[in-house]
Amino acid sequence: MIIVLARDATEADIGAVVQEAARTGAAPAVARSGDATVVRVATDGRGGVSGRLRALPKVRGVVEGDLPYVLASRDFKAEDTQVAVGDVVFGARRVVLMAGPCAVESRDQLRLVARQVKEAGARVLRGGAFKPRTSPYAFQGLGEDGLKLLAETAADFGLKVVTEVMAPEQVELVGRYADMLQIGSRSVQNFPLLRAVGRTRKPVLLKRGMATEIDEFLGAAEYVLAEGNDQVVLCERGIRTFEPRTRFTFDVSAIPLLKRLTHLPVVADPSHATGAAFLVPAASKAAIAAGADGLLIESHPDPREALSDGRQAMTPDELALLAPALRRLAEAVDRTL
Ligand code: PEP
Ligand code: MN
Question: How far is the CA of 272 from the centre of ligand 1 (A)?
Answer without folding.
Answer: 7
